From TrEMBL:
Keyword Hydrolase: yes
GO cellular component entries: cytoplasm
InterPro entries: GTPase_ArgK, P-loop_NTPase
Region span, Disordered: 1-20
A GO term for molecular function: GTPase activity
Protein name: Methylmalonyl Co-A mutase-associated GTPase MeaB
Keyword Hydrolase: yes
Assigned protein family: Belongs to the SIMIBI class G3E GTPase family. ArgK/MeaB subfamily.
Keywords: Hydrolase
Name of the gene: meaB
Entry's EC annotation: 3.6.5.-
Organism whose genome encodes this protein: Planococcus maritimus
Amino acid sequence: MDREKQSRQVMSGVSDAHDGMKALPRKKFKKPAADPFDLNELARGVESGSRLHLGKAITLLESTNQKHKKHGQELLNALLPKTGNSIRIGITGVPGAGKSTFIEAFGTMLTELGHRVAVLAIDPSSTRTGGSILGDKTRMEELARNPKAFIRPSPTAGTLGGVHKKTRETMLLCEAAGYDIILVETVGVGQSETLVRGMVDMFLLLVLTGAGDELQGMKKGILELADAMIVHKADRDNLPLAKKTVREYKQMLHFLQPATEGWTTRPSAVSSIEGTGMKEIWEMVQEFEQAVKESGYWDTRRQEQTRDWFHSMITDELLGRFYGDPERKQQVKDMEQRILNDQLTVSQAVTKLFK
């Protein structure tokens, strides 16, 4: 089997390479025999903006193969100087709020303004089978065909917060590929959405009309994470109610702590079908970026996010090593049985395991 065919088999991104390769990063990589990933080629392709190579690079990072994981980190390290030059926007909302519809309309408008948009769409994984539908490219057909956009659906793979463990690193690769706006679509609303807030610059919450009833079932913690509240589907007969909902949110937001220093959370009515309110949202994003950068909190937040990421990775590594030891796995099974047989308390079992 030739290398080109092998590459096609392992690549799960979107094709469409761009012409014209940029200079190779300073560090050159030695390609191991029988490895379908050529790091030099990937680095050149990602830097040139090739969606084909970006998809391959993300696949390499997401691989559970130890050799691939090592190569993925080497590639990411070489591309780090090209990262950090985007605005990262998290988008969440109640079920049925139209997150994908909004992202397609918003993303299309941004590309028309000359921006390059990467969408990291997170699909929930089944707790029983571990499978995922990964249908976001189907729901965003127009944006998926746009040469200035890149859509990468990823399963949550059991990660809290509805975010794949590699989402942060995927964002860095997209930045290295020249995407200046990163949109992260999350599974839905829940307490664990704080993890999304911890990796983006601005957090948008999509809601529907009828704020009075909806707020009763929405957790206050989610509202306190939002930098903007988008009352979606504000069109046709629903427009008057949407405007009323915006007024209700304006009153309610006075009683909540702002999500970001130097910025007051605002509600706004938007229709993805009619395209109304989209430009206002983008103007709000730009105003947010300017205000937060002037306050000095932009860099502070990103540093805090990187530090939190570091500590969460330590936790992941500890868990991986603990459960990855075959002997330890058997000990855990033995302790489970003794607990179920009322021979040990849970605390006693844990203490024995860590002796």
